[in-house]
């Protein structure tokens, strides 16, 4: 599933440059994750880098509105990288 940045976000800008899929951008008030580009870093890293660098506990969580299997996330990675 894609990830979601909650309203706990303090706009520290730690997550945006770490995203290998350019899925994170500044929204109206806080950073947002584009679910069409988020692969939870599958294909790049073992765990999501945005969660690893975020200084706020539980600020970046699984997005219940965008549930995806690991296979779907890996397929999305392949498409985003132009490997398909």
UniProtKB/TrEMBL annotation:
Signal peptide: none annotated. Residues 1-29 form the 4Fe-4S ferredoxin-type domain. The keyword Kinase does not apply. GO terms for molecular function: 4 iron, 4 sulfur cluster binding; metal ion binding. Keywords: 4Fe-4S, Electron transport, Iron, Iron-sulfur, Metal-binding, Repeat, Transport. The keyword Coiled coil does not apply. It holds the Pfam family Fer4_7. Gene3D superfamilies: 3.30.70.20. InterPro entries: 4Fe4S_Fe-S-bd, 4Fe4S_Fe_S_CS, YfhL-like. This is Ferredoxin. It comes from Photobacterium galatheae.
């Amino acid at each position: 599933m894609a990830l979601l940045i909650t309203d706990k976000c303090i706009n520290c800008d730690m997550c945006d440059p770490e995203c290998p899929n350019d899925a994170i951008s500044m929204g109206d008030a806080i950073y947002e994750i584009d679910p069409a580009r988020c692969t939870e870093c599958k294909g790049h890293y073992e765990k999501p880098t945005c969660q690893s660098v975020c200084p706020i506990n539980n600020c970046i969580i699984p997005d219940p509105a965008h549930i995806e299997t690991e296979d779907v996330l890996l397929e999305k990675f392949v498409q985003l990288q132009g490997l398909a």
